[in-house]
Amino acid sequence: MRVALYGRVSTDNGKQDVENQLAELREFCKRSRWTVEIEYVDKASGKDSKNRPQFIRMLEDADKREFDLLLFWSLDRLSREGVLATLNHLQRLSDAGVEWRSYQERYFDSCGPFKDAVISIMATLAQQARLRISERTKAGLKRAKREGKTLGRPKVDVDVDVEKVRELQANGLGLRGIAQKTGWSLSSIMGSLKAGVALKRFKLLRQAVAFSL
Q1: N or C: which end of the chain has fewer CB within 10 A?
Q2: Neighbours of 48 (CB within 10 A)
Q3: What is the pLDDT of residue 202?
Q4: Is the pTM of this model over 0.70?
Q5: Are 2 and 62 in contact (CB under 8 A)?
Q6: Residue 168 dihedral angles phi and psi, to the nearest 5°
Q7: Are 27 and 16 in contact (CB under 8 A)?
């Protein structure tokens, strides 16, 4: 079996040594007669996978089936992003056909007899996490409404020169080309044109009413 090792320490200050983890993981693979294909090592917090380049590389290599099993020291060394994110990482490995195993937590093993039970428990916890996030979001929106806060993206007033737009259209430019040339957004240009047409119609209507009187 081709095995990848993942080791992580929280800081790069020399006080923590990932080699302590890797040495035991290598010995475990040797006893199991597994071949260590590659080792991934990060010296960073486990709270954000985006700041761990070796972790990202490991997932990308898993997608390409560069190894058959990922062996890590413990679950908190693999990820401390919470149940939902951690489950997503493990599910990505499983979807790629890669097994995973925690050295310290022997029950946490996708090859072992407790795989289905562990995944089921984690999925339940992840669902609860999603519900809590949803409830917090809804509560935050309700509070914002009570306090009279405006929700959504702030509106940006853009002064579009309708005459300039007409001139560029006469020169053969489409609305997207005009947006690229002027820096005005396409929606702002379209809105200004519609407003201009509506204003023109209103003026014509007012003139017609005045003439009839």
Answers
A1: C
A2: 13
A3: 45
A4: no
A5: no
A6: -65, -35
A7: no
69 Cα distance to chain centroid = 25
Amino acid at the residue 144: A
Angle in degrees, 0-180, between the axes of helices 186-212 and 162-170, rounded to the nearest 10:
100
* Pick from 122, 125, 91, 94: nearest CA to 107: 122
CB 3 within 8 A of CB 68: yes
**CA 160 from centroid of its chain's CA atoms:** 35
If you search the block for the tokens 């040339």, which residue do you land on?
181
Render each residue's pLDDT in the chain as its tens digit; 213 residues: 999 999 998 876 656 778 989 999 999 999 999 999 999 999 988 888 888 999 999 999 999 999 999 999 988 899 888 877 888 899 899 899 999 999 988 888 888 777 777 767 766 665 665 666 677 677 777 777 777 776 665 544 456 787 888 888 888 888 888 888 888 888 878 877 776 655 555 455 555 544 444
User: Are the C-beta atoms of 8 and 52 separated by less than 8 Å?
Assistant: yes
Strand 99-102 vs strand 35-43: parallel, antiparallel, or unpaired?
Answer: unpaired
Q: Where are the domains of the chain?
A: 2-128, 162-212
Q: Which one, of 66, 67, 102, 69, lies nearest residue 86 by Cα?
A: 102
Whole-angstrom Cα distance, residue 116 to residue 150? 46
Domain 2-128 is of which CATH architecture? 3-Layer(aba) Sandwich (3.40)
